[in-house]
Amino acid sequence: MAIRDSRIPGFYKLPLPARRDEIAARGDLGEDAFQVLDAGGLDRATADRMVENAIGVYALPLGLGLNFRVNGEDYAVPMAVEEPSVIAAASNAARMVRAGGGFHGEADDPIMTAQIELLEVPHATKAEAEILARKDTLLAHANELIPRMVARGGGARDLEVRLPARDQGGDVGRVVVHVHIDCRDAMGANLLNTVAEGMAPTLAALSGGKAGLRILTNLSDKRLVRLRARVPFAALATEATAGEDAAEAIASASRFAEDDAYRAATHNKGIMNGVDAVVIATGNDWRGVEAGAHAFAAASGRYRPLSRWWTDGEGHLQGELVMPLAVGTVGGTLGVHAGARLAQRLLGVDSATTLAVVIGAVGMASNLAALRALATEGIQRGHMACHRRATSEIPLPAETETARPPLRAPSAEATP
Ligand code: MEV
User: In ligand 1, which atom is closest to the CA atom of 273?
Assistant: First the structure.
């Protein structure tokens, strides 16, 4: 089903129906596969079952990021995003990376962590010892709570006791137990929360305290992806800038992000432009991914960029990205959202870890595109051209034209 050649020259010039035909033919999809997208991928009745007080469906454009080659495989990547130029920029950068062999990367096993807070613990170190002495029994207990995940090859892998309050000079009496669970192809939130709630009474009894919060942590730092890219200087050249100069300017922009948290935040925003678009399209929890990314970026005590770029002295710009990516290919929204199911079919990944690696590649491509533009001609030229195209081609509803101020091209002060 997946598109096995993600180079489709001139795709952007086709009218939307012709793009669908092209992809349907390449992906061996039925003629009407795309019809679900005409209602935003979600019908009203399903929306009404999904959330409370529903009054409709709120749609986003869905496009394809092209030119992606990741670990030797091609991917046409579904991206749901409202910001003009994100898809074009990522596709453009993916083509540059492709010139150097594409992205390479791997993901950790899909391990998520449940946190069980224990309060009013009289002797924290004694509680720690009591709990750790029963680690095997406790892990077996965790597995009893999630038999279907265990049957699928996942389940509890390890348990740790943390005394974060004491470490930070805060309340003694608080002990936190972390249970690490392999979620296989699920994102895992429900599973983790089941384990946290199910184990809390036993842990509270062992600690001599009482159970506090029982929930997963979104700082999923055991579920990292690592991506690498190596781009020949020539692929980075712009009309006005030689490839080597562009590469050096990108490396300098990367150092700026390492030195300055204000810049690092924007640098990471550029990464999340690509990451979130795929996370949303594939029906995953983008708030969880965002929370994890930024907590990880700040984990050293200083907010840092999630990627870095440098020149290697051999004619290449090199880059790497490391970040947590808690995403799934089964369960959750996928069960109900036809658009997300179509997106996953188009992408054709066979596991949550492969999905995470592809998402990391799209984040890295978005980042490279932004840095190249910023470090050479500036972001406004290409970006605002896309904004103008988007705003000028949208016909305004009659009542909007008369009763409301007209839709304007964003001003120069608008978010880049
Ligand atoms: C805009 O959506 C993203 C950028 O600000 C990212 C960056 O500055 O690196 C262009």
Answer: 2
Q: Predicted confidence band at 400 (pLDDT cuts at 50, 70, 90)? A: very low
Q: Ligand 1, closest atom to CA 373?
A: 10
Sign, Cα dihedral of 228, 353, 215, 208: negative
Once rounded to an integer, what is the mean pLDDT over residues 177-182?
A: 98
Give every CB contact of residue 208 below 8 A, 6+ residues apart in sequence.
121, 122, 123, 126, 127
Out of 379, 383, 386, 387, mutate this one to test ligand 1's pocket (max ligand atoms within 8 Å of CB): namely 379
Give 271-316 as a DSSP string: HHHHHHHHHHHTT--HHHHHHHHHHHHTTTSS---SEEEEE-SSSE
**What's the 330 CA to ligand 1 centre distance in angstroms?**
31
> Does the annotation mark 135 as catalytic?
no
**Strands of 171-285, DSSP E:** 175-182, 210-216, 224-232
Contact 292, 304 (CB under 8 A): no
Average pLDDT over residues 38-64: 95
Quick: pLDDT tens for 2-14.
778 899 999 999 9
Q: What is the pTM of this model?
A: 0.92
> Does 285 participate in catalysis according to the annotation?
yes
Rounded distance between C-alpha atoms, residue 416 and residue 401, angstroms: 26
| Residue 207 Cα to ligand 1 middle (Å) | 48
Question: Which residue among the candidates 74, 128, 182, 285 is catalytic per the annotation?
Answer: 285
1: confidence class by pLDDT, cuts 50, 70, 90: low
Residue 28 binned pLDDT confidence (cut-offs 50, 70, 90): confident
Rg (CA), the chain: 24
Cβ atoms of residues 209 and 130 within 8 Å:
no
- The closest residue, in CA terms, to atom 1 on ligand 1 is 416
Q: Among 54-63, 160-169, 186-195, 394-403, where is mean pLDDT lowest?
A: 394-403
